[in-house]
């Protein structure tokens, strides 16, 4: 199972930091997704472009999980040599992240 099987993902940017928000579609999946998407798991999945610790903020009121991922945008919108300086394509990449231990979506 991947993030895309159970959640919607949105991304944005704050300078060189990618902001990734994950919203499980069903409330009963929130805790399982939260447990599967630790800071270390997300950093490992996104790879070598991550330049510092990933920060995760659970937002139970809106059933969302927000990740701040430093360095992933290669300098940010105006300074990045990469094609996607805003990080908008990262939502698709994060959606492909496997969620070990989760069965089929409810």
Structural overview:
The chain has a four-stranded antiparallel β-sheet. It is globular. It contains four helices and four strands; from the N terminus they run αββααββα. The longest helix has 8 residues. With 106 residues, it is of the alpha+beta class. Helix content is 24%, strand content 25%. It starts with a helix and ends in an 11-residue tail after the last helix. It has one domain. The relative contact order is 0.31. InterPro entries: AtuA-like_ferredoxin_dom. This is AtuA-like ferredoxin-fold domain-containing protein. Pfam families: AtuA_ferredoxin.
Count of β-strands: 4
The string of secondary-structure elements, in order, is HEEHHEEH
* Largest sheet strand order: 1-2-4-3
Contiguous helical run count: 4
How many structural domains does the protein architecture include?
1
End-to-end Cα distance, whole Å, is 12 Å
The overall average pLDDT, rounded, is 85
Topology overview:
Elements: H1 3-6, E1 7-14, E2 17-24, H2 30-36, H3 39-46, E3 55-59, E4 64-69, H4 90-95
Antiparallel strand pairs: 1-2, 2-4, 3-4
List keywords for this structure.
single chain, about 110 residues, alpha+beta, four-stranded antiparallel β-sheet, 4 helices, 4 strands, AtuA-like_ferredoxin_dom, AtuA-like ferredoxin-fold domain-containing protein
């Amino acid at each position: 199972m991947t993030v895309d099987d159970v959640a919607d993902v949105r991304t944005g940017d704050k300078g060189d930091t990618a902001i990734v928000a994950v919203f499980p579609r069903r409330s009963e999946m929130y805790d399982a997704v939260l447990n599967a998407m630790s800071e270390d798991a997300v950093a490992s999945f996104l790879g070598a472009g991550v330049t510092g610790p990933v920060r995760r903020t659970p937002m139970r009121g809106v059933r969302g999980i927000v990740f701040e991922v430093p360095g992933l945008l290669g300098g940010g919108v105006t300074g990045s040599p990469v094609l996607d300086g805003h990080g908008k394509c990262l939502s698709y990449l994060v959606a492909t992240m496997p969620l070990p231990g989760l069965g089929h979506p409810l």
